[in-house]
Amino acid sequence: MLLVIVRESTASFGGDHTGRILRPIWQALFGVVTNREWDHIHHHLRKTGHFLGYGAQGLAWLRAWLRTWQPRFAWEAWRERWRWALQMALLNTMLVAALDEVHQSFLPNRTGLVSDVLLDSSGAALMLVIAFFFRWVKQKTARDVRPLAVVSEPS
C-alpha cells in the first residue's frame, strides 16, 4: 500500500498526466464533456482517489498494528487493543500523508497542500471508524448470543 502512494507521488501521476488517461474512460462511460467540465470532474476524481486510497492505507496500518499487538493482550481487552491500534493507524497515515505532500511540493507539476493532508487523514479516519463499528457489532452480537437450553419433556 505504501509503495502505491510512493509511486503515485511522482511527477508522472500529476494532474496534467492523469487527465489524459482518465478522460477517455470517463467519456466512454458517461459521454463527452467540455474542457471546463472535465477540469471539475478530474479534480473531484483525484480528491476521491486520495480519500479512498488513504482510507485503505489506514485499514492496512490498523491490521498491521492489531497483528503486532495480538500476543500481548488478552481477548477480553479487545477494546484497549483496538484503541491503541486505531490511534497508531491514524497517526501513521497522517505522517505518510504529510510526507507525501512535502515530497510533492518539490515536484514541478505537483503541489503540496495542507488541505490534502486533512482530506487524506479524513479518509483514513472514516474507514477506521467503520472498521471499529463492524468489530464492535461483531463483539456485541457474539456476547449476546447464548446457547438455547435443552428442555426435556416430562415423561
UniProtKB/TrEMBL annotation:
Positions of the VanZ-like domain: 37-134
Keyword Transmembrane helix in annotation: yes
Pfam families, sorted: VanZ
Keyword line: Membrane, Transmembrane, Transmembrane helix
Transmembrane feature ranges: 82-99, 119-137
Protein name according to UniProt: VanZ family protein
Species this protein is from: Terriglobus saanensis (strain ATCC BAA-1853 / DSM 23119 / SP1PR4)
